[in-house]
Amino acid sequence: MKKTLICLLVCFSLAGCATWGQMENGNNAIKGQFIETAFDVLGYPSGKQKVENGTVYFWSVFSTRSILIPQPVTTYGFKGTTSLFGTTSYNPYVPVLDNCLINMITYHNGRIKTWETQGNHEECQHAIERLNKYYKQQNI
Fold this sequence. Notes:
alpha+beta; four-stranded antiparallel beta sheet; two-stranded antiparallel ribbon; 4 helices; 6 strands; 44% strand
């Protein structure tokens, strides 16, 4: 909670901070364009798949990292015949998978019909910034 609040405060205090709304604006600005526009903005996709009336192009980024998660532990013991206990903590590393997936679905003619995204902000940061730049260029 504290980390999220700090991130939000830093984000709001910086000009040009990447947000999910900027990704949405950028994707909406690309919608209706030919898929090559998405290639210019996001780079070449990670892959594509033909569907009934078009193609799904996808950009995916995955990474792993470890974070420390404090864990409370109750410790029990004896001093003579007296039972004692206390709470301690340890900080194990927990693996976290970060990901960003952007799908753009085109009509058979290559125009972008719709889009969808999923993932977390950290991994989508680069795509958000590129999409926001495109959006701003279109709305000058």
